[in-house]
Amino acid sequence: MFFDFAMIYGVICILTSGALVTMFNRTFTQDNAMTVVFLISLIDLCFAFIRRNHRRDGMKLITGLTGQLNEQEAQLVQLLHRY
Q1: Which has the closest alpha carbon to 26: 10, 4, 44?
Q2: What digits encode the pLDDT tens for the residues 7-62?
Q3: Transmembrane stretches, by residue range (predicted)?
Q4: For 46, what's the count of Cα atoms within 13 Å in the CB-facing half-sphere?
Q5: How many Cβ atoms sit within 10 Å of the Cβ of residue 21?
Q6: pLDDT of residue 66
């Protein structure tokens, strides 16, 4: 979530400033600031893929469970469904 906010913050800083952009208490040229925002968005995209893979693996685990579940397994299934 930090990288989502950092990306939005960077875009707002770029759009509201001129040739020099102050982000994270550092001064960048506009081109360098756009590069920083691009790299932050790339990191955010990587984390999104990791989260998606974990959700997909969790759903595969849930579908693989058969039979009567004990209380702990049922709670785990509920947690996985929530995410």
Answers
A1: 10
A2: 788 888 888 888 888 888 889 898 888 898 899 889 988 888 887 777 777 777 77
A3: 7-26, 32-50
A4: 7
A5: 22
A6: 66
